[in-house]
Amino acid sequence: MSEHVVTLHVNGEARTVTADIRSTLLDLLRERLHLTGTKKGCDHGLCGACTVSVDGERVVSCLTLAASIDGCEVLTIEGIGTEADLDPLQAAFVEHDGFQCGYCTSGQISSAHAMLREHARGDLSTVSFGCGRETVCNGPATLSDDEIRERMAGNICRCGAYANIVEAIASLVDGGTA
């Protein structure tokens, strides 16, 4: 077994761990750093339950080798908000019942959190690609329900709470906090 020292800035805190070079970010977070909010769903990068942000970009942590992101900033669900101080996105999920069993919720929220930043900086999706970066309103493409569904397509909810998840995210856009 070959080991590698990995230093990550997880939720704003520098963390140094010696890990097997084959260790995924998901396993490092859950087993070594005891941050269990990020879930292991399919372990094949297909369901999105393990979504976190690395340097501001969404990644499926089950397919990301920890050694490959040495020195990076990692944001997990634990860093987005706390029970005592919910992030507006977390509060919207509660208000709009954007979860049922809750297993996928941390990945959904982590993905939506990064997606809102992507949208704000003008990143395109297949829905908005035809419009270009600017719409007639001279701003980012409208974050319609179709746009939200497209951008969140990598996150699966076995319970089928998709309509409520879209409502939760859209409420932030309509409320002007996105």
UniProtKB/TrEMBL annotation:
Keywords per UniProt: Iron, Metal-binding, Oxidoreductase
Pfam family, one: Fer2
Source organism (scientific name): Mycolicibacterium arenosum
Protein name: 2Fe-2S iron-sulfur cluster-binding protein
2Fe-2S ferredoxin-type domain location: 4-80
Entry keyword RNA-binding: no
InterPro entries referenced in this protein's UniProt entry, alphabetically: 2Fe-2S-bd, 2Fe-2S-bd_dom_sf, 2Fe-2S_ferredoxin-like_sf, 2Fe-2S_ferredoxin-type, 2Fe2S_fd_BS, Aldehyde_Oxdr_Iron-Sulfur, Beta-grasp_dom_sf
UniProt keyword Oxidoreductase present: yes
